[in-house]
Each structure stands twice: as C-alpha cells, then as structure tokens.
Amino acid sequence: MEATPLVMGLLAGVTIFAGLPVAILPRTSDKQRAFLSSVATGILIYLFIEMCAKVIDELEDLLSSSMADYPTWGDFWLYSFIFIAGLALGLVGLVFFETKFIKQGKDEVLPLMRAKRTAMLIAISIGLHNLTEGLAIGSQYAWGEQTLALLLALGFGLHNATEGFAIAAPMAGNAPGSKYLFGLGLIAGLPTFFGSIIGSMWTSKILETLFLSVAAGTILYIIGELLHLGRHLKGEAIVEVGLLVGFLTAFATEMLIVARGGAL
Fold it and tell me: Which of 55, 15, 61, 7 is CA-nearest to residue 167?
C-alpha cells in the first residue's frame, strides 16, 4: 500500500480529536450544557440532511432516467431498498443496542452515564459517516485525482473537528476521563483512515449507499436523544440559538470544502 492514501486518511481523521476537549470543561452550568448539546444537535441535523440529500439526489437521477426510457428501473428500486433498509437498520440497531446493553430507564441513569452513552452512540454514527468520507478520498486517489483527494482530505479534516465537538458536547462538565475520550476519537476517526485505504483499492456504490443510510438512521435516533436531554436542561432560548449555531457551523465547513473543489 502506498503511503499517500494512508497520510490522507490520517489527515482527515485525526482532527476529530480537536473538538473532544470540550468534554472536560470545568464547572459547566445547566444552561451551558444545554447550549453545547444543542450546538451538537444542530451539527448532527445538518449531517443527517447532507447524507440523505446525497442518496436522494442519486435516486432522483435514476428515476428521471427511468422515466426517460433508460434501463435504470432496476438500479432505482435496488438503491431505494438499500436506502430504506439502511435507515431502518440504523434506527432499530440503536434501539436494540440500548435494550440489550443499557438496563436502566433513560431518566434514572446517572448524568455521567447518560452523557457517556449518548457520546458513544454519536461516535459510532459519525464513524460510519466518516468511513464513506475515507472511501471518497481513496477512490479519487485511485482514479488519478491526487490533488482532489488531498483537497477532500483537508476539507473532511476541517469538518471532522466540528464532529468531534458534537461527540464531546453532551459530556461537558461531567469529567468523562481522557481514556474514554480517546476511545471515542478512535471510534469516530479511524474509519476515515480505513476508508481511504479501502477506497484506494476497491470501491462499491452499493456499500457507500448502505453506510450513508445506516449512518443517517443512527444520527436521526441520536437527534431524538439529544432533544430529550435538552428538555431536561431547559433554557429554550439558549437551545434554539445553539441549534442555529451548530447548523450554521456545519454548513460553513461544507461550503469551505466546496470552495476548495471538493464535495461531501
């Protein structure tokens, strides 16, 4: 394996750690936690829209081709099934995970345990999403577009810094521990590295669509979890401002990627 895809994957994935120190902020008030959690929610809402839009745009193209008598009906139904199945798998999979491994009711779990659980689920879903980003980097390199691959790596690296914040924000003020934070960073960031390696050797549109759909389903579930947490923290005006800040932050990082010639 050549070194360049490895370096690009590391470059794009390691920045996830930039946002994690938010979790060790001392003496965080309820209003501050409400704001940070709502910013994380805004980022995840944007990621959900972005991932669904990517798949839906491709489905619309296939449908338009089919209506114009091109032989694409089979692909349209196949990718539609993968999209719906992936969303369902992401949602139901996390429900099963909580039922299987988390015995206490949501409201009875200690604040730190609930925050760590939420952060873990966010890290898993972002890891699935980042795997598709790594695949995009590796595939561009394999097709001879080394410059575009590097631009994508830089852009995804910037984007991952905001995703690291989304992972850490629910734990702010709860002192989760450096080892736990490091583990979350690996869960969310390493898939970018592995994806770049796989993408440089072999690509599959079916697997890319499946990973995007599963990640979208898990993020949809986690958005509900964070909104549930926000209701306990009160402060409606702060929550709404945080949602807007998070959404606009994610939007701004994507526009920077597009301006540099890449695309999420």
Answer: 15
Distance between terminal CA atoms of the chain? 25
Q: What is the pLDDT along the chain (264 residues), one digit of tens a residue?
A: 444 788 888 888 898 998 888 777 776 666 777 787 788 788 888 888 888 888 899 999 999 999 998 888 999 999 999 999 989 988 887 777 666 655 444 444 556 777 788 888 888 888 888 888 888 788 778 777 777 677 678 767 877 777 888 888 878 777 778 888 899 999 999 999 998 888 888 777 888 788 888 888 878 877 877 776 656 555 567 778 888 998 998 888 778 767 765 555
Neighbours of 4 (CB within 10 A): 16
pTM of the complete model: 0.74
Residue type, 236: E
Spatial distance between the Cα atoms of 59 and 103, rounded to a whole number of angstroms: 39
Burial of 32 (0-12, 13-18, 19+ CB in 10 A): middle
**Domain boundaries along the sequence of the chain:** 3-259
What is the amino acid identity at position 243?
L
Residue written as token pair 């990627």:
257
